[in-house]
C-alpha cells in the first residue's frame, strides 16, 4: 500500500511539469507575475513548515541529535547543486544558450530524482508525513516548473518541446523513489537521514532561492501580503499535521 501512495504522489508532482501549458492562456505578463507572487510566498511557508514542524521532529525521534549532520549535508549539497547545475551562469559575456538549456534539464532531472527519494522516504516513515511532504514539494514545484518552462523556451525550444522535456525530467522522481523503497529496509537509519537531508534542502530552497526574490519588494502593502501568504503556507502544513496525525 505504501508503494501505491508513493506512485500516486509522484505522479501528481510529475504532472506539475506540464503547468507551462497554462501560460498559453495567460496573455498578460502582469497576471502571471501576480500568480507567481502568491505561489512563491505560499511555497516558502509550506517548505519551512514541513521542515521544522513535521520532517525534523519525525527524524529527531529516530536518530536524535545525529540528524542535524544530515540537515547540514542537505544544505551543503543543495548549495553545490545550485552553483554547478541549477543556475548555470555565463562568464565574461560569453553565453551559449544551447548549453544553458541543457544544463537546466540536467539540474531539473537531479532535483526531481531527489524529490522522489524524499517523497518515498516520507511515506515509508508515515502516511501523514508523506502527504505533508508531497504538498510542500508540490507547492514549490509549481513556480519552479513555470520558471524551467520559460528557460527552455528562451533557449530555443518550441513550447510543446519544452513541455515534453520538462515532463521527461520529472520522471526521474520515480527512479529516486524506487531506489529508496528497495534499500530503505536493508540499510539501517537510511530513512531518518534522508529526512534530515530533505529538511536541509527545504530550508535552503526557502531561504536562499525563494526569499531573496520576495526581498526585492519594497512596497509595504505587497510585503505584508507576502507575509500573509507565507503564514498561510505554514498554517496549511500545521493544519495538515494535526489532521493527518489524528
Automatic annotation (TrEMBL):
GO terms for molecular function: metal ion transmembrane transporter activity. It is a multi-pass membrane protein. The keyword Transmembrane helix applies. Keywords: Membrane, Transmembrane, Transmembrane helix. PANTHER family: ZINC TRANSPORTER SLC39A7 HISTIDINE-RICH MEMBRANE PROTEIN KE4, ZINC TRANSPORTER ZIP13. It holds the Pfam family Zip. This is ZIP family metal transporter. InterPro entries: ZIP (IPR003689). GO terms for cellular component: membrane. It is found in: Membrane. Its main location: membrane. The chain crosses the membrane at residues 6-26, 35-55, 67-88, 163-184, 190-211, 223-244.
Amino acid at each position: 500500500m505504501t508503494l501505491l501512495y508513493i506512485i500516486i504522489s509522484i505522479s501528481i508532482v510529475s504532472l506539475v511539469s506540464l503547468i507551462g501549458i497554462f501560460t498559453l492562456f495567460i496573455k498578460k505578463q502582469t497576471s502571471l507575475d501576480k500568480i507567481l507572487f502568491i505561489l512563491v510566498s505560499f511555497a516558502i511557508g509550506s517548505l519551512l513548515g514541513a521542515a521544522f514542524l513535521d520532517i525534523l521532529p519525525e527524524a529527531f525521534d529516530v536518530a536524535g541529535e545525529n540528524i542535524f549532520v544530515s540537515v547540514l549535508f542537505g544544505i551543503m549539497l543543495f548549495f553545490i547543486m545550485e552553483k554547478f547545475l541549477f543556475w548555470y551562469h555565463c562568464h565574461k559575456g560569453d553565453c551559449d544558450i544551447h548549453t544553458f538549456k541543457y544544463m537546466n534539464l540536467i539540474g531539473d532531472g537531479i532535483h526531481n530524482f531527489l524529490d522522489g527519494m524524499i517523497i518515498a522516504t516520507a511515506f515509508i516513515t508515515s502516511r501523514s508525513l508523506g502527504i505533508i511532504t508531497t504538498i510542500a514539494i508540490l507547492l514549490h514545484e509549481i513556480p519552479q516548473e513555470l520558471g524551467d518552462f520559460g528557460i527552455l523556451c528562451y533557449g530555443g525550444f518550441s513550447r510543446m518541446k519544452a513541455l515534453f522535456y520538462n515532463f521527461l525530467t520529472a520522471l526521474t522522481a520515480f527512479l529516486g523513489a524506487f531506489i529508496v523503497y528497495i534499500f530503505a529496509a536493508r540499510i539501517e537509519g537510511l530513512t531518518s537521514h534522508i529526512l534530515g537531508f530533505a529538511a536541509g534542502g527545504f530550508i535552503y530552497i526557502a531561504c536562499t532561492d525563494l526569499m531573496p526574490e520576495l526581498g526585492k519588494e519594497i512596497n509595504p502593502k505587497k510585503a505584508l501580503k507576502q507575509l500573509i501568504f507565507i503564514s498561510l503556507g505554514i498554517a496549511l502544513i500545521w493544519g495538515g499535521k494535526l489532521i493527518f496525525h489524528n
